[in-house]
Write a structure and sequence with these properties.
The complex is a heterodimer of chains A (324) and B (303).
Chain A: H1 16-28, H2 41-60, H3 62-66, H4 75-100, H5 106-114, H6 132-149, H7 158-186, H8 190-209, H9 221-226, H10 234-252, E1 262-264, E2 269-271, H11 277-287, H12 291-304, H13 306-323
Antiparallel strand pairs in A: 1-2
Chain B: H1 2-12, H2 44-66, H3 75-101, H4 118-124, H5 135-138, H6 144-165, H7 171-199, H8 203-216, H9 228-235, H10 246-259, H11 282-297
Helix pairs in contact in B: 2-3, 2-9, 3-4, 3-7, 6-7, 6-8, 6-10, 7-8
The chains are: A mainly alpha (324), B mainly alpha (303).
Chain lengths: 324, 303
């Protein structure tokens, strides 16, 4: 599906109204905006913010599970986990590249992350005290991420949509691996089963918060939906996630920690209890259990190795000069 | 909507449907379906001990490299270092499984329950004195420069052995080596490129690169000294005597350091292969504490 050209005229005054009209027509037709097309400044800024936040989440998201890389309890699990954490670094790379097509710069975005000018998903500020957390992050956190991200494969911005197709395929694989780990643990010792239930108890509510604030308290949602950056409302996606997770929890043999969770026979959907949005606001604003540690590690990776990056740049410059 | 529905459908299937996942489920039993018969005239204890030497080197270096994950200079390097670690982990799994297949399990089986596969019994339930790795892979990483110099040296020595091991009379070792040669060629190349950039980069990186080489070179002392096991198996066409790889290794290293404008440190005098005989420093004990802690807390668990 190719969009009609939205090139700015080579000379003559810029007719913003005409460009806006063309842009609106592309969005209305469900076509894609590409990097060289004209786009409203608000669209560009909103996309950069959203894509950067997503990229940051992938990179910070390497840490909670990465904490188990050295002590995974079998070599097979170690290989699976290492491959997963590696995929997350790859996702961060595609997403920063997508942001760069909008004029952003990776180094600058990283700086905004470690100076806390840009956010990342608050879910990664929770600690991972047991190996069951690795499985539950795969099942619930990656599961919620997939519900959020699959619609983004149809985002109106081409490079973002294409990056998301690959990301979603890999996330689906991670989700299945997480679930498989939990199934194995549930067939294991009583301690292992208790570890799984404990991890589910800790991650269920935070995973519901991954869909963002409720629709009546989500100030940017309407504009993002109009621009085709967002395809479904937060509450709608959250409901899908709950409906998807309940039968999976039953197969697994764990209890989701919500006494109000029940199937509504009239709608075929699940009713669930009230989410503690105060906790969400605290964690996202930096008071989560592991915020400081996550940012400090990312900062150390950059600052402690700045000499390496400088060396690579200097080497490239010297040898470009040699070749010239 | 079509794509979206497919992915949601896929998620509802906890099992089956291999086709829709991004890549295969290639993490399972390393030697599944392989004929593990011991070649005629070979002592299984020797063959198993040799597999532990090569397997432990890979396992320990994979663990060291994994320490860089979430701490690397660039995202590209996160991916690369994880890739190298994954390759080495894969080699370790095959080699430990091969040792187990010929009955070399040491004391691990007295601790690990029957549901734990051989590769895990060997990785998680042996004590340091049963490990056969060398000091070259056990030493702490140091900075990124020292890490890349060590990777260069380790990949170069291992590649020289694996290249010859492809014609081993043990078909399992030959197959492991054939696969490993491609991987190790990439590891050596990746490390060499970094050594060039650091040596010929800035003043600081040159200084650090040189310090890295100076710290790593003494670890070569044990690398070319064969054990009795390696000598017996080399005579029988199974193994590779590391002494025979010296010229290739010193040649490659001299070339890379020269091109990187780094000085080649003095080659250390050969020392007895202490690591191969089970003598290790505190670094290995510390590394194994991280590696083995959780598995040992749950000896009856399956993961």
């Amino acid at each position: 599906m190719s969009a009609p050209a939205l090139e700015r005229p080579a000379d003559g005054p810029v007719d913003t109204a005409a460009l806006q009209q063309q842009f609106d027509a592309v969005i209305a037709a469900g076509h894609r905006i590409e990097p060289r097309d004209w786009m409203p400044e608000g669209y560009r800024k909103t996309l950069i913010r959203q894509i950067a936040q997503h990229a940051h989440s992938e990179i910070i998201g390497m840490q909670p599970e990465g904490d188990w890389l050295l002590s995974a309890p079998s070599l097979r699990r170690k290989a699976i986990l290492l491959a997963k954490v590696q995929d997350e670094a790859g996702h961060g790379m595609y997403l920063y590249s997508a942001a760069e097509t909008l004029g952003a710069d990776r180094a600058d975005l990283t700086d905004k992350l470690i100076t806390r000018k840009q956010k990342y998903s608050s879910i990664f500020n929770y600690p991972t005290p047991t190996y069951a957390d690795v499985g539950v992050i795969g099942w619930l956190v990656d599961g919620a991420a997939i519900c959020n991200q699959v619609p983004l494969c149809r985002s109106s911005y081409g490079p973002y949509a294409r990056a998301m197709i690959r990301v979603c395929k890999e996330e689906s694989f991670h989700q299945r691996q997480g679930y498989e780990l939990l199934m194995t643990m549930m067939r294991g010792t009583p301690e292992q089963r208790a570890m799984v239930q404990d991890a589910v108890d800790r991650w269920w509510w935070p995973s519901l918060m991954m869909f963002g604030p409720p629709d009546d308290d989500s100030p940017n949602s309407a504009q993002s939906m109009a621009w085709g950056i967002k395809r479904h409302s937060n509450d709608e996606l959250r409901q899908r996630y709950v409906d998807m997770s309940v039968p999976q929890a039953e197969v697994l043999g764990v209890t989701l920690p919500d006494p109000e969770l029940a199937l509504d026979p009239a709608t075929g959907r699940h009713r669930f209890g009230a989410i503690d949005w105060d906790e969400f606001k605290q964690v996202i604003s930096g008071s989560g259990p592991a915020n400081a540690e996550r940012i400090a590690r990312r900062r150390a990776a950059r600052d402690d190795n700045a000499w390496v990056t400088e060396a690579a740049t200097a080497y490239a410059a010297k040898h470009a000069a040699d070749a010239a | 909507m079509a794509h979206e529905e497919t992915v949601y459908d896929a998620l509802d299937h906890a099992h089956g449907g291999e086709g829709q996942w991004a890549f295969g489920t290639g993490f399972d039993e390393p030697l599944a379906g392989v004929d593990t018969t011991v070649p005629e005239g070979i002592d299984p204890a020797d063959l198993g001990a040799y597999c532990l030497m090569l397997g432990d080197d890979a396992l320990v270096l994979a663990q060291r490299l994994t320490q860089w994950v979430t701490a690397s200079p660039e995202l590209e390097e996160e991916v690369a270092v994880a890739n190298v670690a994954l390759d080495l982990l894969g080699q370790a799994r095959l080699l430990l499984a091969r040792a187990g297949s010929v009955g070399v399990l040491g004391r691990s089986r007295t601790r690990a329950t029957g549901s734990i596969p051989d590769e895990d019994a060997l990785a998680f339930f042996r004590d340091p004195d049963e490990f056969r790795s060398t000091g070259l892979v056990e030493a702490p990483n140091g900075d990124f420069g020292q890490t890349m110099v060590r990777l260069l040296v380790a990949a170069t020595t291992r590649l020289a052995v694996f290249a010859q091991l492809r014609t081993s009379r043990d078909p399992v070792l030959a197959a492991i080596a054939a696969k490993g040669v491609n991987e190790l060629t990439y590891h050596r190349d990746h490390a060499a490129r970094w050594v060039l950039r650091l040596g010929d980069g800035t003043e600081e990186s040159h200084r650090r690169g040189q310090a890295g080489a100076d710290a790593v070179w003494p670890l070569l002392a044990e690398v070319f000294s064969p054990t009795d096991v390696e000598q017996r198996l080399t005579a029988a066409g199974i193994a590779v005597d590391p002494a025979g790889t010296r010229d290739e290794v010193t040649g490659v290293l001299t070339q890379v350091l020269g091109q990187a404008t780094l000085g080649v440190p003095a080659w250390p005098a050969d020392a007895p292969p202490r690591g191969r005989l089970g003598e290790h420093g505190p670094e290995l004990t510390e590394l194994l504490a991280d590696l083995q802690g959780l598995a040992r807390q749950h000896p009856a668990a399956t993961w």
